[in-house]
Design a protein that fits this description.
The chain has 458 residues and is an alpha+beta fold. The protein is built from 19 helices and 16 strands. The chain has an eight-stranded mixed beta sheet. Strands 13-12-14-15-16 form a five-stranded mixed beta sheet. Strands 2-4-3 form a three-stranded antiparallel beta sheet. Belongs to the class-II aminoacyl-tRNA synthetase family.
Length: 458
RNA sequence: GUGGUUGUAGCUCAGUUGGUUAGAGCGCCUGAUUGUGGUUCAGGAGGUCGUCGGUUCGAGACCGAUCUUCCACCCCA
């Protein structure tokens, strides 16, 4: 015997029930995407390394799964490079392909590559797995699904408004209440950085600011100081740390801080536009919240930044994120095409729904009716009936072996099949079917039409 | 990538300062019941204690490595 088989760290098998639940989420998201006018595309699970490397920052490069070249990939390596043992230098020589890290960069590549076939603005959605060589934790896997919807080729802020509605639509359809859609704007962040004299340290500044609710004001200030942001600038941030209140109150404070920054003011205007529109349109269950500390996400966001927080009752990281990126396709040579999009983290949404018990009971149903097998003659007779049941949309099957009754009944019970149909010699003779309701235990003998009606009725 | 944590039957877990043949509940299989599952009763199967190595007369327990789980960083869905 070989050793016990296993799967790689951070990956999972899914049993039928789990797949049913995942499909429930997929289908809900997919339906919402389509009613909002998005069209699906798919891209390869692996791309050329050039396409991915360098797009997610240094940290991102580390987390990209590289695919080893085929053949004698070491034989062709220059001796000096090989003997240096420098992984960063050697990697591109032995790996020219990599698993996709997200869906946005492959989409940007797709847009550039197919720019002449695409009718802009192009609204696409994409539901596919992505891979990250991260250390797994709860809600953090090395293989997981992203469900992305993006629009390219339109600067309009109405897109942002629609994406907020899309989030609201999906989470309402999933009956997941208490979701918070946090919004911020990169222009505000870079405006603040400019005002405090850290214009060249935008990333360090935002990364530190993003940790406010986690590590506290003092630690944030400390981190900023250590990154070389002047004390005088940090003092100017004071009103930011105590920022609270409604959307409008926060906006008022921000206007004071950003009075001297044209870009910052522009960011505020964008936020106000979006908030005003959402207020006029209304949201079903989600809440839109301004969060100036929201800076997470990819470095390429240029305007709006979104992040969706699960209800506070469940300890889970963000279950979605997105934003506006004015120059995404620029890295692939196509200038002046603006994009904006959002992503749903399927695997985390699953965990949230599971912990709140929000999956409908019906998702895991297998078949409606199982025919007990009494022997070849009865089986053939049953299959004729099964053909009719299936034609009328009933999920029906025959137990394949004429095993003991107890075994067959037990099988139906364990699979939670609601109806069992018994056709023995007597029934065959009378052209009738004995229908047993496995929940109530009730039994009745019916002809085929009555049988179909009875099952369909339930 | 850094630091910590976890692993015993299919599942959830006991297992004393290192000491005979490693236990329980649930689940599973068989029978009571050859055309009736879920309840009940009787019986049964199932573990090289994550893996490899070390210490010891003796290791599930101690030490090391490795894999895995979860957690905190980093980062992120």
């Amino acid at each position: 015997m070989a050793q016990k088989p296993s799967i790689p760290k951070g990956t999972r098998d899914f049993n039928p029930e789990q797949v049913a639940k995942r499909h429930y989420i997929f289908n809900t998201i997919k339906q919402a995407f389509e009613t909002f006018g998005f069209q699906p595309i798919e891209t390869p699970s692996f791309e050329n390394s050039d396409t991915l490397m360098g797009k997610y920052g240094e940290e991102g490069d580390r987390l990209i799964f590289k695919i080893l070249n085929s053949g004698d990939f070491l034989g062709k390596i220059d001796e000096t490079i090989y003997s240096e043992k420098n992984s960063t230098k050697l990697t591109p020589k032995i790996s020219e392909k990599a698993l996709r890290y997200d869906l946005t960069v492959p989409f940007a590549r797709y847009v550039v590559q197919h720019q002449n076939e695409i009718e802009f603005p192009f609204k696409r959605y994409q539901i596919q797995p992505v891979w990250r060589a991260d250390r797994p934790q709860k809600g953090r896997f090395r293989e997981f699904y992203q469900c992305d919807a993006d629009v390219v080729g339109s600067d309009s802020l109405w897109q942002e408004v629609e994406f907020i509605q899309l989030y609201d639509t999906v989470f309402s359809a999933l009956k997941l209440e208490g979701v918070t859609i946090k919004i911020n704007n990169r222009k505000i962040l870079s405006g603040i950085a400019e005002v405090i004299g850290a214009g060249d340290k935008l990333i360090d500044f935002t990364v530190a600011l993003d940790k406010l609710d986690k590590i506290g004001e003092e630690n944030v200030k400390e981190e900023m100081l250590s990154k070389g942001i002047p004390q005088g600038g940090i003092d100017k941030l004071q009103p930011l740390f105590s920022l609270s209140g409604t959307f409008n109150e926060q906006v008022k404070t921000l206007k004071n801080i950003l009075a001297s920054s044209g870009e910052g003011i522009k960011g505020i205007e964008e936020l106000v536009f979006i908030d005003t529109a959402i207020n006029a349109l209304g949201l079903e269950t989600a809440v839109l919240e301004l969060d100036v500390t929201l800076a997470r996400g990819l470095n390429y966001y240029t305007g709006a930044i979104f992040e969706v927080a699960a209800p506070i009752t469940v300890a889970m990281g963000s279950i979605g994120g997105g934003g506006r990126y004015d120059d995404l396709t620029g890295i692939f040579g196509l200038k002046n095409v603006s994009g904006v999009g959002i992503s749903f983290g399927l695997d985390r949404i699953y965990l949230v729904l599971e912990s709140l018990g929000l999956f409908p009971e019906t998702v895991a149903k297998s078949v409606d009716a199982l025919f007990i097998n009494f022997g070849d003659a009865e089986a053939l007779f049953s299959l004729k009936a099964i053909k009719q049941l299936r034609a009328s949309g009933i999920h029906a099957e025959l137990y394949p072996d004429s095993a003991k009754m107890k075994k067959q009944m037990n099988h139906a019970n364990k699979r939670q099949i609601p109806f069992v149909i018994l056709v023995g010699a007597e029934e065959m003779q009378a052209n009738k079917f004995t229908l047993k309701n496995m929940v109530s235990g009730e039994q009745s003998t019916l002809d085929l039409d009555a049988l179909i009606n009875q099952i369909k009725k339930s």
